[in-house]
Amino acid sequence: MVTSSNKKLTILVINLFIIIHRIQYSSAILDPADFLALQSIRKSLEDLPGSDYLSSWDFTSDPCNFAGVFCSGERVVTLNLGDPRAGAPGLSGVLDPAIGKLTNLTEFTVVPGRITGTIPATISELKNLRFFAISRNFLSGEIPATLGELTNLRTLDLSYNQLTGSIPWAVGSLPALTNVVISHNRLSGPLPAFTSQTLTRLDLKHNNLSGSIPPGFIPSSIQHLSLALNRFTGSVEYLLPQLNRLNYLDLSMNRFTGPVPGCVFSFPITTLQLDRNLFSGPVQPFNEVSIQTVDLSHNMLYGEVSPLFSTVQNLYLNNNRFTGSVPNTLVDRLMDGNVQLLYLQHNFLTGVPIKPTEAIPVSSSLCLQYNCMVLPVQTPCPVEAGSQKTRPTTQCMQWKG
């Protein structure tokens, strides 16, 4: 006859067996190398105040249930370090080299925070990695050349860090790249040749990269190209015509020279930013320009202003060497309110078909000062245009275009 105490003992033994079984099952579900790698990664990181991301990393339970950890079978395949919610404070610490032990990883990201130190060279052991993004942290040192071993890598985002050195040529040679974003760092040296024929986005703005960019160094598949705020030199006369799929182009604040290819004004983009370079020569679009904003300011462009710019909503031609009279069609569209901004200051223009009695629409901005003419109308100009209304006659006589 089974007593009540025996029943309780039996139930207790069964429950204990279930608990033991679950513990054994949960610890066996993950490959031991991955388990130890996650432990090392956890020891090198801390939650910033206000973050509780690491609170779920309790190694007495199944690591595949940790926040940001996703498994397939017995291996970790995705590791998203930090809380992805907007405005979360992220993590501090360093990236432990043990990350290289998670050899089945296909995705590795770190949310914005205060991760310092270098990128572990052991990342090169993650041969299955397709997505690698550590943005808006404080990584320093150089980009490991061994990243060039990640032949399956498609997205590389190391933007907004403190990385130095050059971009390894081996990284440019990765065959499957589609997105490369390494903007807002301290990189220097030349641009490597990017050979991936699937590359659609290349964003390297706000670094110290230099040198010329030969044709073929950027594949024709590129759609988004930002090289602004670097020290690139040389001509783009033969480079840009090959990039006929561009829908975003920003080459501003470099030292590019030579002419602006007429084909760029036919690209399907909304903003063309070529300002603050050393471009020279006349500007000759092939057809009416349908780009909303064209910024060619602060260059050495000359010749007459093309009437094909009359369809541009915001046109910056200031601080160049344009001569002649402003086209009637451009002025007409300005007076109709179709041109919202027209900056022509600091050129050598000699006329503009506006009567002194005409009023510029309130919705439009016009600046004409410091040209070779008496201003027909007085309009507000940006502070950087200065206070002098007309260019000295001696300069106007010397400059022939």
UniProtKB/TrEMBL annotation:
EC supergroup of this enzyme: transferase
SUPFAM superfamilies (alphabetical): L domain-like (SSF52058)
Enzyme Commission code: 2.7.11.1
Pfam short name (any one): LRR_1
Gene Ontology CC entries for this record: membrane
Entry's localization field: Membrane
Domain (Leucine-rich repeat-containing N-terminal plant-type): residue spans on this chain: 32-72
GO molecular function: protein serine/threonine kinase activity
UniProtKB keywords: Kinase, Leucine-rich repeat, Membrane, Repeat, Serine/threonine-protein kinase, Signal, Transferase
Signal peptide: 1-28
UniProt keyword Signal, yes or no: yes
PANTHER family to which the protein is assigned, alphabetical: LEUCINE-RICH REPEAT (LRR) FAMILY PROTEIN
TM region positions: none
The organism's taxonomic lineage, starting at the top: Eukaryota, Viridiplantae, Streptophyta, Embryophyta, Tracheophyta
InterPro entries for the chain: Leu-rich_rpt, Leu-rich_rpt_4, LRR_dom_sf, LRR_N_plant-typ, RLP29
The protein's name in its UniProt record: Non-specific serine/threonine protein kinase
